[in-house]
Amino acid sequence: MLTEKDKRIGVRIKLLRNMLKLNQSDFSKPLGVDRSHIAGIESGSRNPSEPLLRLIHCNYCVNFTWLKTGTGEMTISAETAIKSQIACFGKQVVSEAINKIIIEHDLTAATTDSTGYCFYTGDKELDQRINTLCVFWHNDDKRLKSWASVQFDHAFPQQIVDNIRNKFKNNNR
Q1: Are 57 and 94 contained in the same domain?
Q2: Which among 2, 24, 46, 90 is least buried, having the fewest CB atoms inside 10 angstroms?
Q3: CA-to-CA distance for 38 and 129, rounded, in angstroms?
């Protein structure tokens, strides 16, 4: 028997789906369930499982607390979404996806904090890779920092590596 609370989860899922401008079929495909399953949840005749709610949270970057309880905002910030993706899929998968997006969309990864690491060599792809590695290199995780250091040493001309190391030293003073 579904409680009123469970039925309201269906209303929130429908609200999310409509906000995303997805029909039930398109919404259900990445979740690995049939359209009829989503229809049942939205109508209040089915109760969504905890794993399904987690999938909705991860796939559609929706606030998990809002999804379950209706408390808080429906959507989450980009930073929270990325942290959520890391929790769902792991650092390596998310890192590879971000690198791919940076290259595909001609973006430059640059930190927005006080470090100001942003390098321009004139080659967009090279700049993207360098700036992404700078973000990793500046991370507090020693393994990630070490990995980035090895990548710099093996992948880039010595002049660029020296330039980056000097900038790191100057910014850490």
Answers
A1: no
A2: 90
A3: 41
